[in-house]
């Protein structure tokens, strides 16, 4: 593309230098710039990209996108907001890839990853070629790629959608985080269906208030567009959790056709009834606008029924039969690090779960309390440099459901680990748990070891917060750490009477 073609995409832009400069790539990180690139200067949360123009030019940038003056004598486009320009320019550079496949976006505090995996499974079983983007990975058909964020920055996102489109992917199912919506990472995305799972407390460090957090989630629905087309392929759907009051707000701000799912509220389009939850799976009946059917899924817990309902609704809207959806969902054994059982023939249960919010921790523990025959123990912490107000709430919740709690480190990131533990302890103390019922152990491995060592037949040990993660970030340094591997080793060492771990 030529520089003038980029400039013409924004009314509010000024071009300086040769308008016919040929652009062969776009970068927002000066360290990654190659010859022929357009370097977009982003004002970040830590540093200002305008500081790195010298490195970008040295590395071969032939032009810059700026929102404030820089001294380099290279062609430039000055814009009002370079983050917005990044979304516009990358969508155009990759020729609007989200228009060339069906994009399904899932937002909400909890359940996004699970729901995207369920939809991917249903669509793949219908011989669709699928792409997936989210917390655990990006996938293009069977190929997996590592990701830094749940929802990629606009440039990487458009590049990934382009790669999907080139690989003949017909559906992409993606998690859309509130950060991404707020920062405009998904501005260039043309969604077919937007799904809302739920809204409970998280990320108040970033959004400030629950109302602002709700409004960020709402952007996925308010920007969805409308369904007014005689071509069914162009229709837009909003799939909402009818049991979450936030859905009333989302209904008002979307012009897409609304479908609701739920358990408790009457009158939803897709409803689960006759629920039975065990430690092996979950049975329920689904009543939909195309009929009813009994489901027997291997995922555990009421919260997973909501995820299944969201996936069922979105799949029905793609014309897939309820019977096929049932067959696919019943085959799903589990999702990496979500309520994942670590089993080494021991006579107690050890479950690793990604619950890192008050609501998800409560859901996991409540589910366990419904089937546990012995004592319940939880090992958990809270992430550093994240919402501090959730820490005592999670302490209270653990105290409410557990016989014993081990408060430990999650990813302290740049915070002092012990301060995080003390914040959690406040909630435990408030709930009246005594000193003999809980312990603060900064070292996560030691906490897991102690919790498992103290488990007896039929007890359940929940190791919460890190799920699929294979690292732990302490003092800003990431080191290998996997709750599942640590738990496995500890169980084996107990069985083999080997104290070396
Ligand atoms: C707060 C936040 O979201 N930050 C994201 C943001 O970084 P930033 O704005 O701080 O960038 P910065 O480091 O200040 O740099 C500014 C600019 O200078 C450039 N730069 C920087 C250094 C250099 O030498 N040269 C250079 O050009 C950078 O490439 C960038 O363009 O842009 C980065 C690149 O896309 C993201 O990786 C980063 O996510 C960080 C890692 C993060 O932790 N984000 C979390 C809060 C987040 O987004 N989480 C949500 C999921 C939440 C959930 O639902 O649970 C997510 O979608 O992942
Ligand atoms: N629908 C749900 N409602 C409440 N809690 C849920 C739901 N689904 C899953 N959970 C809980 O939340 C945890 C995270 O689930 P999942 O990874 O699917 O959510 P997510 O929204 O993708 O999270 P993240 O914001 O970290 O990307 C699970 O381990 C489980 O404890
Ligand atoms: N997407 C979430 C993941 C949190 C996972 C938890 N293990 C933590 O580190 O806080 C976040 O970035 O807030
Ligand atoms: Mg996720």
Profile the largest sheet.
Answer: 11 strands, mixed
Any low-confidence stretches, pLDDT <50, length ≥5?
none
Look at the structure and name the CATH superfamily of the largest domain: Mur-like, catalytic domain
How far apart the termini lie comes to: 58 Å
Number of E-type strands: 24
Range of strand content? 15-25%
Could you tell me the mean pLDDT? 96
Percent helix: 25-40%
CATH architecture of the largest domain: 3-Layer(aba) Sandwich
Strand order of the largest sheet: 9-8-7-10-6-11-12-13-14-15-16
Structural class: alpha/beta
**How many domains make up the coordinates?**
3
Number of helices: 16
- Which ligands does the model contain, each kind named once? ligand UAG, adenosine-5'-triphosphate, 2,6-diaminopimelic acid, magnesium ion
What's the Cα radius of gyration? 24 Å
- CATH class category name of the largest domain: Alpha Beta
CATH topology of the largest domain: UDP-N-acetylmuramoyl-L-alanine:D-glutamate ligase
Shape by Cα distribution: globular
Oligomer: single chain
């Amino acid at each position: 593309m030529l520089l003038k073609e980029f400039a013409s995409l924004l009314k509010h832009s000024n071009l300086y230098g040769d308008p016919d400069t040929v652009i062969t790539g776009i970068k927002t990180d000066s360290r990654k710039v190659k010859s022929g690139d357009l370097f977009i200067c982003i004002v970040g949360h830590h540093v200002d990209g305008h500081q790195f123009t010298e490195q970008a030019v040295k590395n071969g940038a032939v032009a810059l996108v700026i929102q404030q003056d820089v001294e380099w004598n290279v062609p430039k486009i000055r814009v009002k907001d370079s983050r917005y320009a990044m979304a516009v320019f990358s969508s155009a550079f990759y020729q609007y890839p989200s228009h060339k496949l069906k994009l399904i976006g899932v937002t909400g505090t909890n359940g996004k990853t699970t729901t995207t995996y369920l939809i991917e499974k249903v669509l793949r079983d219908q011989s669709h070629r699928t792409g997936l983007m989210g917390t655990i990975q990006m996938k293009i058909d069977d190929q997996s790629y590592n990701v830094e964020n749940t929802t990629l920055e606009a440039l990487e996102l458009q590049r990934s959608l382009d790669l999907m489109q080139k690989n003949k992917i017909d559906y992409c199912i993606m998690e859309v985080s509130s950060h991404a919506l707020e920062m405009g990472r998904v501005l260039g995305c043309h969604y077919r269906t937007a799904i809302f799972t739920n809204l409970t407390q998280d990320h108040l460090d970033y959004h400030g208030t629950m109302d602002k957090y709700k409004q960020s989630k709402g952007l996925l629905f308010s920007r969805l567009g409308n369904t007014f087309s005689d071509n069914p392929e162009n229709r837009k759907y909003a799939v909402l959790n009818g049991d979450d009051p936030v859905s009333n707000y989302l209904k008002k701000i979307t012009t897409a056709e609304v479908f609701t799912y739920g358990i408790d509220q009457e009158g939803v389009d897709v409803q689960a009834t006759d629920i039975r939850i065990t430690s092996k799976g979950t049975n329920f009946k689904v009543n939909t606008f195309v009929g009813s059917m009994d489901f027997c899924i291997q995922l555990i817990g009421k919260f997973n029924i909501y995820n299944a309902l969201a996936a069922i609704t979105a799949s029905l809207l793609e014309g897939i039969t309820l019977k096929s959806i049932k067959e696919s969902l019943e085959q799903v054994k589990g999702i990496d690090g979500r309520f994942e059982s670590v089993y080494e023939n021991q006579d107690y249960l050890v479950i690793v779960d990604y619950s890192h919010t008050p609501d998800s921790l409560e859901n996991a523990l409540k589910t366990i309390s419904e089937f546990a025959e012995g004592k319940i123990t939880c090992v958990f912490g809270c992430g550093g440099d994240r919402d501090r107000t959730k820490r005592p709430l999670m302490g209270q919740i653990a105290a409410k459901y557990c016989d014993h709690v081990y408060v430990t480190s999650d990813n302290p990131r740049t915070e002092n680990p012990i301060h995080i533990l003390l914040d959690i302890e406040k909630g435990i103390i408030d709930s009246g748990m005594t000193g003999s019922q809980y312990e603060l152990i900064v070292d996560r491995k030691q906490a897991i070891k102690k919790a498992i060592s103290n488990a007896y037949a039929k007890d359940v040990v929940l190791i919460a917060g890190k799920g699929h993660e294979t690292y732990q970030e302490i003092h800003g340094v990431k080191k290998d750490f996997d709750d599942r591997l640590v738990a496995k080793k500890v169980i084996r060492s107990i069985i083999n009477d080997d104290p070396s771990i």
